[in-house]
Amino acid sequence: MTAGPALDADRGTVDRQAVWSALGTVLDPELDEPITDLDFVETCTVTPEPDPDSDTGGDAGGVAGGVAVTVGLRLPTFFCAPNFSFLMVADAYDAVMAIPGVNRASVTLADHSASEEINGGVAAHAGFVKSFEGSVNGEAAAELDELRRTFLSKAAMAGQDRVAQPLVDAGAGPDELAAMTLGELAGTDADTAELGRMRTRREAIGLPAGDDAPLLLHPDGSRVTTEQVPLHLRRARLQRVGIETNGEYCKSLLKIRYAPEAANH
């Protein structure tokens, strides 16, 4: 994880590292990577708030010694999908506001075709549909819970390839893979950070993620049979490659868009 650009902050009760860590829990839904790793966080400022009981005044509803946080996000293109963009801004706001000691937060997206709708909607806690009512960018048909679930399901599928591949390389066959549970992976070559990541994605969408859960699962949560293992692993690998390829493409676009030399033209 990089230290992050433009993290110039006055230190209060909450420091910038706490905010950065919170932002690190926010994922690009399509790429399944933290917005901090993707370099989508352009600015982050932490400012101490006045003590509500002091002579300087302040918001009586605030926390004494609390802070205000301002975060600016950026994306690879002007036309990145508004639904994905809204999710990231809204999730970033929620993550920052969940930090004890944060009184106020402003999270905005710059240089985007729907910045006005997204920024206004998140600030007003309006939801995706209401934020785009009457928008020149088109109206939203539904909220984003199902979209989020769809991409978490894809990430969970891709995770099966990452976790299973070391086992395949070590000689595990379809019978063994179909019977294997997550708890049995402890101490094996598959017992890596990717295993924990896959568990987290499964838990988020209600799929089995405990020690007795099968390693290989269909998107509906049913167990993969021995006969289905080869095709299932091919699909999982395709999902992983697709996500990772899109991620590298977006990182390249972001570097081009915000290259230092571009700012001089």
TrEMBL record:
This is Metal-sulfur cluster biosynthetic enzyme. It comes from Pseudonocardia endophytica.
